[in-house]
Design goal:
Blueprint lengths: L15 E6 L2 H11 L3 E2 L10 H5 L3 E5 L5 E6 L20 E4 L5 H10 L4 E8 L2 E7 L5 E6 L6
Parallel strand pairs: 1-4, 5-8
Antiparallel strand pairs: 2-3, 3-4, 6-7, 7-8
Length: 150
């Protein structure tokens, strides 16, 4: 009789995160240029998404840990609430990890691109973080571990 639960380790890793976006061009620029994520091109695009990518309905980005961020173009997507702190989904936020030495540069990049900051930078025993919004109002975080103390 098969087990009614998965055992630890059967789920190997985080695979992808999908976001609906109202303006694919703006979101591609934000995730690819401002945040510096690698956009999948040509043979890198999964076969199941090639036609949607070619039609301009999907863009895929590889995160540094190998996970994928999928952006699905939804032209009829309701605009984000005027108050960006009003969450429009049950998801809380998507966090990107960065080396502690590069954290301040990431904060400067967000400011230089007039990205709407929710709060931060904050410092905690677990490291530093800054929370901000993508062009569709989804809450993101860039965080780093505490620097190593010699």
């Amino acid at each position: 009789m098969p087990s009614s639960t998965l055992t630890p380790g059967q789920l190997r890793s985080f695979h992808h995160f999908a976001l609906n976006v109202a303006d694919l061009k703006t979101s591609r620029q934000f995730y690819g240029t401002v945040l510096g994520l690698h956009e999948l091109q040509g043979d890198e695009v999964p076969a199941t998404l090639k036609s949607l990518v070619a039609e301009g309905k999907v863009a895929n980005f590889r995160l540094p840990n190998g996970a994928i961020l999928d952006l699905f173009y939804e032209p009829g997507l309701a605009p984000a609430h005027l108050d960006p702190k009003q969450q429009f989904t049950r998801a809380s936020h998507l966090a990107f990890d960065i080396e502690p030495e590069a954290f301040d540069q990431a904060v400067a990049v967000l400011h230089a691109n007039d990205v709407v900051i929710d709060h931060g930078p904050v410092s905690r025993p677990t490291g530093r973080g800054i929370y901000f919004y993508d062009p569709d109002g989804f809450l993101l975080e860039i965080r780093c571990d505490p620097p190593n103390n010699p």
